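Quick one: sequence plus pyridoxal-5'-phosphate SMILES, need structure tokens.
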Amino acid sequence: MPNAARTDARQSDDVRKPDARPGNPRFSSGPCAKIPGFRLDMLEGAPLGRSHRAALGKDKLKAAIDGTREILGVPDEHRIGIVPASDTGAVEMAMWSLLGARKATMVAWESFGAGWVTDAVKQLKLDAEVVEAAYGQLPDMAALDWNTDVVFTWNGTTSGVRMPDGAAIPADREGLTICDATSAAFAQDLPWDKLDVVTFSWQKVLGGEAAHGMLILSPRAVERLESYTPAWPLPKIFRLTKGGKLNEGIFRGETINTPSMLAVEDYLVALDWARSVGGLEGLMARADANARTVWEFCETRDWIANLAEVPATRSNTSVCLKFTDPRIADGAAFAKAVAKRLEAEGVALDVGAYRDAPAGLRIWCGGTVETADVAALMPWIEWAFHAELAAQAA
Ligand SMILES: Cc1ncc(COP(=O)(O)O)c(C=O)c1O
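Reply:
Sure thing.
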């Protein structure tokens, strides 16, 4: 037995590399891993070189809208539109079209939410209530004034902190809720009765292509659009109404400008895959299993921890981790070096924390990632941590 103990000690001193590698090292938080088994020839059905206004193109765009409704369980009375400029386009279109009718509350707990605060305060120049929390925390959502229009992010991609559920949002609110759900849709249950605007892009949980945003409007949001005209000019790319009425065509697939039919085909393929793994329930279970693998790894180590402080707010998609070992001299340099080692070994690509976020790692755990690959990555994180610590000591 003493020999075995010595061997273990020597192995950790030598920082032995694990034997197994993840089959797919793509753990980027956007664009995210494509569906398992993805091949470019799956997109052969794309009507390339054809008008998106032709019957075939329109059918594809409508199928993207209908498939979104089916898999996300969006109620029939909510409109779903495909809009330009990815999730950013969808959020800004909503903000520019809807805000200003009543006081706004801008809520941020990481970089993207902070970007929407800047939009409201510095660009739209709204006298908004700004509610912020540090990376790792969620503001007290129940304390917000929901009679104002509230803009927030469901899953903070750069801090790994999410809304646990919609309990904090009152059903009888007077304001609109405008929710950036880009890293939550297809991985977390979204309470449609509590959300007046929901946005996301294809490049996140379903591993689709960047380009288009999805804009989902409740009847209350539509009522606002038809009864209120903002004081500022709206570029054509943001205009959701025509003559004071909702432009219904947008919500049937008659996009404002030209979409990429290749990206549309890719989204349709991803939706088919989503059906094959059990739809939303299956997707959520996959993300949960992936995230749990990372959480359990962290819970059994004293040198790494989830950035999200409260367990119920831990993201199951963008899992953000921080190194907590007191021997680390320069946290930012250390985390970068660990991510670099993982990338150099080809076991994890793009897992460094977001540029504005606290130093650490961010492991994407959405449904297109295989749990076996997350499990195979964990010993590599352990290896990279010890290797970097040894390098630092040297
Ligand atoms: C929460 C959140 N909002 C907005 C964006 C911007 O998305 P896009 O680049 O698709 O416009 C991202 C991208 O990572 C995000 O995570």
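Residues 30, 86-88, 112, 153, 157, 180, 182-183, 201, 203, 210 surround pyridoxal-5'-phosphate (CB under 6 Å). The CA atoms of residues 294 and 300 lie 10 Å apart.
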